[in-house]
Amino acid sequence: MKPKNKMVLAAILSTIVPGLGQFYLKRRYRGVILLLSVLLMLFIVAWHRQTIWYISILAIWLWNIWDSSSLAKKDHTAPAWLPLLFGLITAYAIGWQVLQIDLRTANMNRAVQIARPMLKPDFVQKRREQNEVWVAVQVPCMDNPPTGTNQIDGKSATVTPSCAGVGEPMVATVSGLWPDTDTNIWWEDPNGQEKMISTNEDTMLIARTDAEGKLTAMFRVPTTALIAVPDPSISPPHRVYFRQYHLLGGIELSFVGKEVIKGAFVTVGMALMATILGMIFALPISFFAAHNLMNANVFTYAIYVIVRTILNILRSIESLIIAIVFVVIVGLGPFAGVLALAIHSIAALAKLYSEVIEGIDPGPIEAIRATGANWLQVVRYSVIPQIIPPFTAFTIYRWDINTRSATVIGLVGGGGLGYLLIELIRINHMSGVSAVFITIAVIIIALDYISAKVRERLV
C-alpha cells in the first residue's frame, strides 16, 4: 500500500477507535495503551459527571489521529507528552472537585490558636513539691466493690459511691492536704491511662482546699473510662487522684515531658522487639521463598509458590490495619502494636531475605550440589556465608521502618508516642503535641543516622 493511503487508513482507523491506527501500523503496545487510557478517562468523567472534561478526551482523540498519521509516513512529530498532560490536568481537576478542596474554608484564627502553644513545647516546668492522695473505685459495679476510702501519710480521701457506671456522678471528700491550695483531680484507668474529669473531659478538674486543707468535689465517671479495659466484666480497680504543688525554684521535667520520654522508650522498644521477632521467623521462611533454592523439583516449587503467596498477602495489609485487629483481640497497649509490627516485619523481611538469596553467586551452590550434598548442607555451606552482611543491613533498616510505623500504630491504641499523641490531641494540649512531634523527629533522625552508618560498614 502506498504511504499516503496507509496514512489515510491509519487516521481513519484512529478516528473510529483510539489506538486502532497504531495497532494497524504494528505499534500494538502503543495502540492498546491509548485505547485503555481513553476508556479510563471516559469512565472517570462520566462517573463524576464532569462533562466539561470531555474536551480533554477529545483533545487526546485528535492527538491519537495525528500520532497514527505521523507514524504511517514515518515522520513521527506528535509529542507523546501532550496526551499525558491532558490526562493529568483532567485527573487533577476532577480530583480537586471530588475531594471538595476549598481553601476559603480554612480558619486562620483557629490555625493561630493551634500553632501558638506549639511554639512552647511542654517538656519542662518549674520545679515543685508534690502532695498527693488517691482512692480506688470500681467501674461498673460488681461484687465486692472497694471501700472508696484511702489514707496516705495523714491524708484521707473518700469517694461515694465507691462504684458506678460510665457517666454516673461521684462525690469526693479529701482532708489533710495543704490549705488554700489548688488541687488537680483526675481519673486513671487500670492500664495507667489518665482521663480528664472536668465537665467536657478536656481539661483537668481543679478544686481549692479550705483553710483546714479539706475539699469536696463532684464529678462523673469519664466516658472513656472503659475504652482501654480489655474485659470490663472483670472490673479491675480504677483510681481517682488528688494532687497539689508548691513551687521550689529551678526546672524539672513536666508531667507531659515524663510521659513523652516513657512513650519514646516504649516506641523504640516496640520497634526493636517487633524487628527481632520478625527476623527470627523471617529467616527460615526466606529460604523457602527463594526460587533458586526451591526449583529442584515439583514438590519444593509448590512450597515456594505457597510461601510467596502468603508473604505477598501479609505485605499487602498495612500494619496499621493489623494493629486494629490485634487491639480488638488483646486490648489497647504496646502488646497489640508489637504483634502488628512483627507480623508485617515477618512478611517484609522474608521477602527481602529471599531476594538476597536469589541474587547470590550460583557457583558455590552448584559446587556443593555436585558433591551430592542435601538441601540443608547447600544452605549451610554455600548460601549463609554470602547472605549475612545484606541480611544484617536489611534487619537494621527494618528497625528504622518499624520505629516510624510504631508511632502511627499508637494512634489506634498500640501504645507508645502515638497513643500519647492522640490523647493530647483529644484534650487539645497542643504544647504537649509539639513535644511529641519534636521527640518523634529526634528519634527518627537519630535512628536513621545510626542505621545508615551501620549499613555502610556491612554492605
Topology:
Layout: H1 3-16, H2 20-24, H3 28-48, H4 54-72, H5 81-98, H6 108-118, E1 124-137, E2 149-152, E3 155-160, E4 169-175, E5 182-188, E6 194-195, E7 205-208, E8 215-220, E9 238-253, H7 255-288, H8 291-294, H9 298-316, H10 319-330, H11 334-358, H12 362-370, H13 375-414, H14 416-426, H15 430-458
From the coordinates shown, what is the CATH architecture of the largest domain?
Orthogonal Bundle
Tell me the domain tally: 3
Element order: H for helix, E for strand: HHHHHHEEEEEEEEEHHHHHHHHH
How far apart, in Å, are the first and last alpha carbons?
60 Å
- Main sheet record: 5 strands, antiparallel
CATH hierarchy, class of the largest domain: Mainly Alpha
CATH 4th-level superfamily of the largest domain: MetI-like
Total of DSSP H or I helical runs spanning 4+ residues: 15
Helix content: 55-70%
Residue stretches low in confidence (pLDDT < 50, at least 5 long) are none
Number of strands: 9
CATH fold label of the largest domain:
MetI-like fold
Report the sheet-strand fraction. 5-15%
Rg over CA atoms: 32 Å
Give an overview in words.
The protein has 459 residues and is α+β, with helices and mostly antiparallel strands. It has 3 domains: 3-98, no CATH class; 124-252, Immunoglobulin-like (Sandwich); 257-458, MetI-like fold. It contains 15 helices and 9 strands. It has helices spanning 3-16, 20-24, 28-48, 54-72, 81-98, 108-118, 255-288, 291-294, 298-316, 319-330, 334-358, 362-370, 375-414, 416-426, 430-458; strands at 124-137, 149-152, 155-160, 169-175, 182-188, 194-195, 205-208, 215-220, 238-253. Strands 1, 5, 6, 7 and 9 form a 5-stranded antiparallel β-sheet that branches. The protein has a 4-stranded antiparallel β-sheet with strand order 2-3-4-8, with no helix packed on it. Strand 3 (155-160) and strand 4 form a beta hairpin. Helix 7 (255-288) crosses helix 14 (416-426), helix 13 (375-414) runs parallel beside helix 14 and helix 14 runs antiparallel to helix 15 (430-458). The longest helix is centred in the last third of the chain and has 40 residues, at 375-414. It is extended. The two termini are 60 Å apart. The relative contact order is 0.08.
